Amino acid sequence: MDAKLHKKLSERQEKGTLRSLSSFEGFVDFFSNDYLGASKFGSLQLSASGSTGSRLLSGNSEAYERLEKQFADFFRSKAALHFNSGYDANLGIFSTIPQKGDTILYDELIHASVRDGVRLSWAKSFSFRHNDLKHLEERLKKTEGAVYVAVEALYSMDGDLAPLEEIAALCERYEAYLIVDEAHSGGIFGETGRGLVDQLGLNESVFVRLITFGKAYGSHGALVLCDDDTRQFLINFCRSFIYSTSLPVSAVEHNYRVASNPELDQGRTRLQIMLRGFCERLGEMKTISDPNSPIQILEIGEVDKTRVLAEKLQASKIAVKPIYSPTVPDGKERLRICLHAYNTSEEIDRLITLLN
Questions:
Q1: Which helix (H) or strand (E) holds 350?
Q2: CA-to-CA distance for 253 and 71, rounded, in angstroms?
């Protein structure tokens, strides 16, 4: 390995923020994104056969097309296109749709997959302060070409919600295209888990929605919800779609079966009960997150304190992940606590006791 690469690793080691893979088998789960426990339901577990190629070669079928139409109907969208992951979808959307001379405005806390897509785009790009409507409007006033505004409905490292109604109104006023990543809100919010955009009645105000299946749905893959022309454009120009071997149709069928399954309504109700109990028992400790979010962030602000607290929890067989820079800014180190429908009151009591 080149010396420059060794140096970067050493710097993280010295700072105490070196990442490593870990396994938490047998631990109480307060860290995964499987909010509703869908991956644990026997009737909803995935059994997939192989795929033979990309969708444009041999990987497409009538069943694939039928399922995407069913997805579009379920999520109240004009069209849908299935991708292998949320990362692939965001990379493709932002590297493909905005053209040279256009402008992308994105929330400063937007997911890395959007940032990577923006880097590959020929469009100009500018961030705006997190959930700051005034700063977004200042940016909108200075844009040129077609303008695309990128936000997440639920932010995965802060656990807060975007003010989507106000952002949609600004986009309408300035004729900008709103793109909403619902990776963490899909399956949790809205009627039958259709997402925050649908819950707020903003389907017609949003240009593109992204739903991923690796979080609340406990599976894999992602769905781009858009109009027919946008779907056709992505099929023709989106490299992360064109040059990827498709997911097996059985996996896509599984995703539809999970998303539309009414059994998950019980999980959504149970999750909100767990959230209320968690927030009530925190006492003087406060998270920075929305009380309805399954992601609850306890900001510590120091690397050592955050690591010690995470190790204390893990030593008691409670899986909670510490979050350091560069995922969050220096001085914003935190514990990311994920609540699930399958967590128990006793488990939450143990967690709170150890945090205190």
A1: helix 345-355
A2: 10
Residue 68: count other Cβ atoms within 10 Å of its Cβ: 19
Indicate the pTM of the whole model: 0.90
Q: How far apart are CA 347 and CA 30, in angstroms?
A: 9
Q: Looking at residue 54, what DSSP letter applies? A: B
Query: Where is 55: in which H helix or E strand?
Result: none
pLDDT (tens digit per residue) in 243-264 = 998 898 899 999 999 999 998 9
Burial 33-55 (b: 16+ CB within 10 A, else e): bbbbbbbeeeebebeeeebeeeb
Amino acid in the structure at residue 269: T
Nearest C-alpha neighbor of 179 from the set 135, 155, 148: 148
The single residue listed with the structure tokens 């990379």 is 91
CATH architecture for segment(s) 50-259: 3-Layer(aba) Sandwich (3.40)
Active site residues: 33, 111, 152, 156, 181, 184, 215
Interatomic CA distance for residues 243 and 222, integer angstroms: 16
Peptide bond into 294 cis (omega under 30): no
Tens of pLDDT, residue by residue over 93-128, are 999 999 999 999 999 999 999 999 999 999 999 999
Give the amino acid at 169: A
User: DSSP character for 161?
Assistant: B
What superfamily would CATH give domain 15-35+263-355? Answer: Aspartate Aminotransferase, domain 1 (3.90.1150.10)
Cross-strand pairs, 127: 106
Contact yes or no for 210/89 (Cβ under 8 A)? yes
Name the phi and psi angles at 105, rounded to 5: -110, 130
